[in-house]
Amino acid sequence: SQQGEEDPQALSIQEGENATMNCSYKTSINNLQWYRQNSGRGLVHLILIRSNEREKHSGRLRVTLDTSKKSSSLLITASRAADTASYFCATDARSRNNDMRFGAGTRLTVKP
Amino acid sequence: DTAVSQTPKYLVTQMGNDKSIKCEQNLGHDTMYWYKQDSKKFLKIMFSYNNKELIINETVPNRFSPKSPDKAHLNLHINSLELGDSAVYFCASSLGQFNQPQHFGDGTRLSIL
User: Fold this and answer.
1) How far, in whole angstroms, is CA B74 from its chain's centroid?
2) Which tens digits make up the pLDDT trace of B78-89?
């Protein structure tokens, strides 16, 4: 069964705007990761945030984690056409032998 | 200098055939995985190997069997292919089992005729 659920399923914005994607999950986690997938390619790791962390930054990416609400958000600032991709959240938990569970992703389109 | 490479990239075959997909990583990672991504983009873990031991085996039909000749390779064998096996299969690796990012190959698109 899927663990993470991304919202929205699809998002279309203009270059330069910010993009926010959300992820909700159901069980307690050790960490949550965000990945990007370009069309026809494998997933690329973006950020890992541990359950005791609330916020992490990496360049134009900002990830927040609210364990009380079992949710996370990924913010991409000053978006570029090259950010067009699908974005997935993934969670792991020791109760599941630590295997990672992915959501179905948010398809982001950044128009030039 | 590809980190995780899998072959072939495309595989078109008929129902009932047996096929294999190969995966190699040159990152020195201890753990390797196989995922299946369906047409709706859901990514589901199938297997993972840590130091040549199977540590996860989801509810995958026994027609699928992972084989790891060494730490850098995890191949996927599929017997008696069925229409529902059509999907993109991804290999991945990570340094250890816990709290580690995974590095993915570019996938093998399997189409069953």
Assistant:
1) 7
2) 999 999 999 999
